Amino acid sequence: MAALPAFEGLSTVSPTTVATPCAIERVYRHRLPVRVSHWLNVPFLIILIMSGLQIFNAHPVLYWGDRSDRDQALLSIRPMATESGDVKGITTILGHQFDTTGVLGYSDGMRRAFPAWATIPSAKWLAMGRQWHLLFAWLFVINGLIFTAYAVASRHVTRDLAPTGRDWRSIGKSLKEHLVFRHPIGEEARRYNVLQKLAYATVLFLLGPLIVLTGLAMSPTIDTAVPWLLTVLGGRQAARTIHFITCFAFVGFILIHVVQVIVTGFFNNIRSMITGWFIVEHVKRHS
C-alpha cells in the first residue's frame, strides 16, 4: 500500500507559451521505506490477484447477503452450451448476459471463469490457490502495516498525501490536464497533485483496509472470534462480493498507475523508485 509515483502532476504552461529547459535539478523524492514497500507490493499484489481468481473459479458466482441463491446472483461467469452444441462463455451481470467467449467463461477449450494464464496455479487447483493466497495476504498485510506506521510517524501522510485547500481548488484543472496527458515540469514535478493524493489516500485508507477486512470475514475462525464483522459487511456472500470488487479496484489503480508512469517519463520514474532520486527540469517560459 505504498505511495507510488503514478499520477504525475501536470504543467500549467498555456498552449501559446514556449518552454525551453534552463536547469536540471536532482530531487530526493522517495525515501527508502517507501521504495522497499512499493517493490514488495509488486509481487504480492500480482500473486494475490491471480490466486484470488483461482479461488473464484471454484464458484464463479457472486451474491449479496448471507446466502448463495442462484436466482439472485449479481454476477456469474459460466460456460453454456448452445442449441448447435457449441460452448460459449457467458458473463451475466444483474441479469444481463454478455458473450465473453475466449476471455471469460470458456477459453482455449477450457470451461473456467478466468483463463489459465490469469490464475495461480494455472491448472484448476483450489487448495493450492488458497495456500498461495493466504500466504501472500499476510505478507501484504504486514508490509502495509509497516508502511502505514512509517507514513504516519514520518508525516508522509500529512506532508505528501493530505490535499490542501489549494489542491481542492485545482481539482478540475488537474483532471482536465490528466485527460490530455500533460505532464509536470519545474516546481510542480516535485510534489503530488490533488488526483495523486486522492488516489494514494484511497488505496491506503479505504481499499487496503476493506480488502483485508472482507478477506478476514470469509474465514470461519475470524467469524467465531469477531462475529459482528460479517453483520457490518452484510453477510458472508456480501463480504465475498465486496472483496471481489475491491480486488478489481486495485487492478484499475495498477493499470492507471503503469500508464501514467510510462507517459510521464518511464526511466525518470523508475529511477526515482529505485534510487530515490528524481530529475526535475526547470523551464524558461516565453511567448
Question: In words, what does this structure look like?
Answer:
A four-stranded antiparallel β-sheet has the order 2-3-4-5. By secondary structure, it is an alpha+beta fold. It has helices spanning 32-57, 126-153, 156-161, 165-169, 171-179, 194-217, 220-225, 228-233, 236-263, 266-275; strands at 18-28, 61-62, 75-81, 87-93, 96-99, 105-107, 110-112, 277-286. The chain contains ten helices and eight strands. The protein starts with 17 loop residues before the first strand and ends with a strand.
Q: What is this structure, in a nutshell?
A:
The protein has ten helices and eight strands.
Overall pLDDT metric: 86
The percentage helix is 40-55%
**Helix-strand pattern:** EHEEEEEEHHHHHHHHHE
Assembly form of the protein: single chain
Extended strand count = 8
Basic shape: globular
Please work out how many helical segments DSSP would assign. Answer: 10
Strand content: 15-25%
Which blocks of ≥5 consecutive residues have pLDDT under 50?
1-19
Tell me the span between the first and last alpha carbons.
Answer: 43 Å
Radius of gyration: 22 Å
Structural class, from helix and strand content?
alpha+beta
Largest beta-sheet details: 4 strands, antiparallel
Largest sheet: spatial strand order: 2-3-4-5
